[in-house]
# Entry
Amino acid sequence: MSRTTVATIHLGALRHNLARLKAIAAPAKVMAVVKADAYGHGLERVARALAADADMFAVAAIGDGLRLRAAGHHQRIVVLSGPDNASDITEMQRLMLEAAIHHESQLQWLANTTPERGKLRVWLKIDSGMHRLGFATERVAEVHARLLAMPGVDPEIGLLTHFSESEVTDGEQTPMQIARFAAATQGLPGPRSLSNSAAAIGWPDARADWVRTGGLLYGLSVVDGKTGADFGFRPAMSLSTRLIAINPIKRGERIGYNGTWTCPEDMSVGRRRIR
# Structure
């Protein structure tokens, strides 16, 4: 008897979830985040399912962008970590990938970039309070001006940030980050992207021009105490396996190694109750 555990990917659920996100976020466009092999669902498989409706794909590394181009996808693709070294920029130009720029070293590499292979589209990442990646808010105007002056950079520069606790809809952190981002980018041209999955459903004022959605795209929970289904999303993966045995035990008996787990007074397993 085989006991193989099988992961089934539900492509219809992926398409439903993207349509749901687009309806919620409209008129903002949706970046479908397919990093980490599409959250373990299979990059090429997921991209193929979403290709007809995804406005843009977002990946974590150039290698994923290469895989998408090799699979024939022509959508815009942004690499959320940007170039890891100077040579990456040439490859990004060749593949027509877009780069999130979040560090001084990347600016130095871009300064030496020429437009022969095409101007590189970039997104200026702003640290509005997450303190992980991005330029400090007081540097945004300066960095934006430097990017505009670079001959190898497309003059339409995107502006993005990332929230640290957008799942907390009554908290103070997200409104503070929204305000910091607005102040730092005031008067600057270019599309804005602030919202991840939780913000897309919980903070309408932060949807801006683009939302970047990962978790909800796959039907995952992005809010404590809620499931994706609570917001109208469907799980894109289900796991199935076969049990090797079901054995009755008495209330209070220990299970497994001595003392590791005790059957409680009342426990339900599926529709059967342990008595």
